[in-house]
Amino acid sequence: MPPLLFQIFSLVLILPYSISISSENPNQSINSADIFQPEAPELLLSVQASQTGTGQTEECTRLGNCLDGTFTQLLKSGCPTLQQSFLINFLPNGNGNTSAGLSRSVVSMKSIEECVSICCQVDTCNFAIMQNSSCHLFFCNNGVNSCMPKAADSVSVENPIKLVLVRPPAENFRTNSSCETGADMQCSSNEECRRKNSRSRNGYCGCKQEPQPYLFDNQWICKAVPSDESLETVTLRSKTENLVVPPSTVSTVTTPATIKILEVSVVSKNITLPENEVFLYAYALPQSPTDHPYSYEWTLISHPEKDPANTEGQTTGTLHLTHLIPGVYQFQVTVKSSDATGAANVTINVHPAKRINQGPISIISPPQQTIQLPTNSAVLDGTSSTDDDKIVSYKWELQKGPINYGFSSTAQQTNSPTLQINDLVPGNYTFKLTVEDVDHETNSSSGNVTVMKEIDYPPTANAGKDIVIYLPQTEVTLNGNASTDDKKIVQYEWKATGDVKKAVDMQDTHTAYLKLSGLEEGLYQFELTVTDEAGQISKPSTVHLFVKKPTGNPPKGYFINVVQ
Questions:
Q1: Could you give the C-alpha distances from 323 to 277, 311, 326, 350, 382, in angstroms and in order?
Q2: Are 109 and 157 in contact (CB under 8 A)?
Q3: What is the pLDDT at residue 552?
Q4: Cis omega (within 30 of 0) for bond into 3
């Protein structure tokens, strides 16, 4: 609690009684609700001198709204901000409902002092409220302004409400913190990120309210608001350990004057796993006499669920704790002697072990692959990439490729562990995959894709079988239509070879069918070559034509096989 805020709350509690001093007519009845009116700022100044010290004690004693002085001193070590005076018929925000905070009930209290002692033992309790024998502990979880004490909306003269400020409320968020909504891991244990406003993604760290409410204690640690059932345990322990002084009125309290108040102190601890043990040392002033040492008793107040820890030395000045797990442990140590007593609370915060980030590893499968047209697509798989926590992004890039290949943003599947690449052209490609983990560390690897041209075999020329004709036949057609190619033949070329001096007329030399005429007796030889659409030329194919003298009545022509 900032000093100024504490002064304001202290001032609010004292105001109703200081007004009667500063009034011209001390016997005049002044409505306590009037002190909250801004029209009278001079009233605030008139009471500053009586905020602390004997002035406050004398004034509340005169008006009959004082806690027992000895009782107040007994609790000061655990509740240094406890106010000795209390307000009559005041409530947080005037109504004490959920708009102001949370209320927990403790029944069967004999006095306001008993109610205060219970509130003092609960780190997050702000007000103790007493009516009849019902004690209510109030927890301000909606901020300081909503919890300001105001005159009660409805009061009972026979059963007045008594309100005591035990701890000034704190804001429900830490303004010195910053976080991004949805990233609660940026805040401490039992905290969540709250928006600065409805349009902002940034915010402050505040105590969680679900599934159970938490509040900041005086060390800005979020503590759970106890249930009514858990307060019954606190009440029982308080009565057993004689921590409460139950006077019915101030005049009936009889505390021996020989009781001394010990100043007890214990240093809170913050440790981080794997360290899981601490020693707590209790110190009391004044020091105990050598012949009459103090007795010590350590009491566990709260701990992480299902783990009270291993303890040694509960009745000594040193408490040894082992096997601690992440969470918050709270202990109270009580120091006593025959004529003195004192107590103090201590907190041990155990933080999880800090994770050492190993960094991600980018893996592309397969790292090398070769495809051949007409296949023109491939898949690169990065799902085998690893990280010790989690990979949050994948980024693919083309590092090298044919100049006529365009790697468009539509082909690049950003933040996907797999990459589908299409419309590949012949050439060598290198793709880069960069992965990033939750700690923003990155790692990259490369995968190669080789795209080969489609295999185009050269064509095969076929000039046909040798031919024999007999004069007077002087014409014949050579057939090269049996020539083949795996794609397409686009050109035929015939030419005469061998004895080129023989007379012959050649027509359609660039087609599959060569027409010959003007033949004379003798042997002719012709050669055929073909060309495919890739410009590949076949090996020549040769055919022989035998032209012979007429004999009898021979056929016009027939084919013979000639061994070449």
A1: 6, 9, 10, 11, 42
A2: no
A3: 66
A4: no
167 in Cβ contact with 140 (< 8 Å): no
- The answer to whether 378 and 410 have CB atoms below 8 angstroms apart is no
**pLDDT above 90 coverage of the chain, percent:** 30
Quick check: 90 and 120 in contact, CB under 8 A?
Answer: no
- Contact status, residue 34 vs residue 40, Cβ threshold 8 Å: yes
Assess contact for 333 and 266: CB atoms under 8 A.
yes
The alpha carbon dihedral of 76, 78, 80, 82 has a sign of negative
User: What Cα–Cα distance (Å) separates residue 193 from each residue in 144, 201, 216, 355?
Assistant: 19, 10, 14, 22
Please give the backbone phi and psi of residue 31, each rounded to the nearest 5 degrees, phi first. Answer: -65, 120
The answer to whether 558 and 468 are in contact (CB under 8 A) is yes
The residue type found at 200 is S
Q: Report the helix count and the strand count for the chain, using DSSP H and E.
A: 6, 36
Measured between alpha carbons, how far is 8 from 141 in angstroms, rounded to an integer?
18
CA distance 73 to 367: 77
Q: How far is CA 171 from CA 2, 85, 139, 447, in A?
A: 10, 24, 12, 55
Distance of CA 159 to the CA centre of its chain: 52
- Non-local CB neighbours of 538 within 8 Å, separated by 6+ positions: 458, 459, 460, 461, 483, 529, 530, 531
Pair 524, 545: CB distance under 8 Å: yes
How do residues 418-468 score in pLDDT, each as one tens digit?
Answer: 988 888 999 999 999 999 998 899 999 999 999 998 888 899 999 999 999
CA distance 232 to 108: 11
For residue 212, the 8-state DSSP code is: S
Q: Are 378 and 456 in contact (CB under 8 A)?
A: no
Give the closest residue to 89 by CA, choosing from 160, 40, 184, 166.
Answer: 160
Distance CA 9, CA 232 (A): 29
- 429: its two tokens: 């490609």
pTM of full prediction above 0.90: no
Q: Where are the beta strands (DSSP E) in 388-487?
A: 391-400, 418-421, 427-437, 442-452, 467-470, 476-479
Going by pLDDT thresholds of 50, 70 and 90, the confidence category of residue 541 is very high
Residue 16 CA to residue 43 CA, distance in Å, equals 10
Provide the residue count of the chain. Answer: 564
Residue 35 phi/psi, 5° resolution?
-70, -15
Q: Please, how many CA atoms are within 13 Å of residue 6, restricted to the half-sphere of its CB?
A: 11
Q: Which amino acid is at 187?
A: C
Q: Helix-strand-coil percent breakdown of the chain, rounded to 5? A: 15, 35, 50
Distance CA 476, CA 468 (A): 10
35-44, 176-185, 319-328, 554-563: least confidently modelled range: 35-44
